[in-house]
Amino acid sequence: MTSYTGHDRGASRDKAFAVLAAVLPALLTFIVYLPALNNGFVDWDDHVYIVNTPNIRALDLAFFKWVFSSVLNSNWHPITVISWAVDYALWGLDPRGFHLTSIALHAINTLIASTLVTWISALYTGTPYAEKRNLLAGAIAALLFGLHPYHVESVAWVSERKDLLCQVFYFLSVIFYLRYATRTALRFFYYAASFFFLALALMSKPMAVSLPLVLLLLDFSLPGIKKSWKTIADKVPFAVLSAVSSVITISAQKSGGTIATLVEHSFFERAAIAFRAYAFYLYKTLLPVGLSPYYPFPPKARFFDRVFFLSLLIFIGISAFCIVFRSKRHFLSAWLFFIITLAPVIGIVQVGGQAAADRYTYLPSMGPFILLGAWAAGLAYKNKRVKIPALFLVMVVAAAISYGTLRQIPVWRDTFSLWSKVIDEYPGRAALAYYNRGVLHNGAGRYDDAIADFDQMLMLKPDNSDAYYNRALAFSMTGRYREAVEDLTKAIGLRPEDPEAYNNRGGAYVRLGDYDAAVSDFKKAIELDPSNPIAYQNLRVVYSRIGSSQNAGGRVTEQK
Predict the structure, then answer these.
(1) Residue 500 CA to chain centroid, in angstroms?
(2) Which of left, alpha, beta for 347 (phi over 0: left; psi -120 to 50: alpha)?
(3) SS (H, E, C) 263-325
(4) What is the Cα–Cα distance from 279 to 285, expressed in whole angstroms?
(5) pLDDT tens per residue across span 373-423
(6) Contact in structure between 413 and 38 (CB atoms under 8 Å)
(7) Given 193, 255, 265, 426, which is the most exposed site by the fewest CB atoms within 10 A?
(8) Tens digit of each residue's pLDDT (9 = 90 or more) over 312-329
(9) Distance, CA of 271 to CA of 273 (rounded, Å)
């Protein structure tokens, strides 16, 4: 008969607690995010990447050749596209399958986060991995990460699968690098594995370019890792890989015209955006209220307002605090991690029309969460009298952020709810949201609502030809043909090479009985697009009306 000692039982309990510390946050995260299965695809990248992309519908040689050699929607992230193709092979175009994969990936990230933070805590304190304080620090940091409503955008929006995959491989690269830096055996294997996972992370989302600097930060922050020139030299291959990814990314973004020029935003305006963004992201991480799928830029006149100076003061104040108390390395390390991992998306290279985005904090938020996890664990184990209150506080915070996440998930249920949320948060400011919701109203036959949204859009962007064009369609459908002509005339003035605008204005002229003007517009539409059959048909109909008053039953077909 085999006998077990108290030491054996204690070791078993330690292993059970270690497993629980990693698995429980992940399990809770998976459960809280399950309502995302009720969401559909949203017509904001989901249709471009998935619904209307036939290339992902076959996992064959032609697909793999395409996915590694092509830019999709101004992005090159083949690993992410492959994941969508696998989902399509399993689920077809059922969005529930795609959302299930995203939820599972987020739960996996939560599990890995707990393991990684526990290990970092153990290295920092010089204690065993299974020390309960380390395990608790990892569990709390992972719980904050997994349940936080700031990450709903990355999880509940299928297009942001790239965040989830990037962080899986990013974390794995860090874990294998720490193995390399703290072990004497199999070091080449660990180093190669870390490099390999960085490559996968970059091919999931290029935001992983920050990893070489993060590895250097870990080298110089954690005890037990030898510091030498070789420490820096080890990062050169990682830096080269990140540089290549950056070149590919900038080239892909430029090809799609998504990078703002210095004419649109000067260097000083970009610097203002960056400082505002650091304070904004930190604030939303600590107090996740008023979250929005889209954050519009402030008016240019407000780039250097009191919000900017307050943000600059916060940035300088935190930096000064961390430098003054640099002996407590965890403050400086967490702050530098936050700065470094946000740097690629902070606005110096401006991509897209948003001032900020929730998805950008998916990785950087780990800096504050690690700090909070370590603080809460230390508080619980430093004084036994506060252990229960400290853990109760953690439970209250977890419940509060879970509630916020459950409220945020339905925002991504469909395209209409998405843009309505933006308008609710930024009434009278979000031009893109008013335009996109107006298009949705038009498609659903709610023409008066569409006109109201396009009115708001044109108050904010009076030089937008698409808004005039779409408002004209709504005017036509409600019998307001003269107003439709006025809007189409403005649209043509802004974009004179648009055949659709001429064709639709011709249709409005027919309704008003101005056949000569209609003929001129239909001819111009044909001149600009000789292959458009609708313009030819409209021209024939209007000629028949001119030629015979008895052909009153003739009907002009308008392009909607």
Answers:
(1) 33
(2) left
(3) CCCCHHHHHHHHHHHHHHHHHHHHCCCCCCCCECCCCHHHCCCHHHHHHHHHHHHHHHHHHHC
(4) 10
(5) 998 888 887 777 777 888 888 899 999 999 999 999 999 999 999 999 999
(6) yes
(7) 255
(8) 899 999 999 999 887 778
(9) 5
- 354: confidence class by pLDDT, cuts 50, 70, 90: confident
> What is d(CA 369, CA 144) in angstroms, rounded to the nearest whole number?
6
pLDDT of the residue at 480: 95
Query: Residue 462 gets which letter from DSSP?
Result: T
Domain spans, the chain? 6-412, 416-547
DSSP letter assigned to residue 51: I
**Per-state percent for the chain, helix, strand, coil, to nearest 5:** 75, 0, 25
- Dihedral sign computed on CA atoms, order 367, 369, 375, 381: negative
Query: Looking at the DSSP assignment, which residues form a beta bridge with residue 135?
Result: none
Q: Give the list of residues 6+ apart from residue 435 with CB closer than 8 angstroms, or none.
A: 453, 454, 457, 461, 464, 466, 467, 470
Of 487, 542, 486, give the one whose Cα is nearest residue 516.
542
pLDDT digits (tens, 9 = 90+) for 388-400: 888 888 899 999 9
* 555 pLDDT more than 60: no
- Cβ neighbors of 157 (< 8 A, separation 6 or more) are 42, 44, 45, 46, 293, 359, 412
Token pair, residue 303, equals: 């780039």
Measured CA to CA, the distance from residue 478 to residue 441 in angstroms comes to 13
Q: Which two tokens stand for residue 347?
A: 């606005």
Cα 385 to Cα 387: distance, rounded to the nearest angstrom: 6
Place of tokens 């989901």: 46
* Cβ(450)–Cβ(471) below 8 Å: yes
Supply the DSSP symbol for 129.
T
Which residue in 476, 421, 467 sits closest to 445, CA to CA? 476
How far apart, in whole angstroms, are the C-alpha atoms of residue 493 and residue 485?
A: 12
- Cα Rg, the chain, nearest whole Å: 28
Q: Per residue in 253-307, pLDDT tens? A: 776 555 554 445 566 777 778 888 899 999 999 999 999 999 988 776 566 678 8
Q: At residue 17, what is the residue type?
A: F
- Which two structure tokens, joined as six digits, stand for 206? 């290029």
Q: Which percentage of the chain shows pLDDT scores above 90? A: 66
CATH architecture of the domain covering 416-547: Alpha Horseshoe (1.25)
Between the alpha carbon of residue 175 and those of residues 25, 105, 179, the distances in Å are: 19, 17, 6
3-state secondary structure of 130: coil
Would you give the DSSP letter of residue 373? H
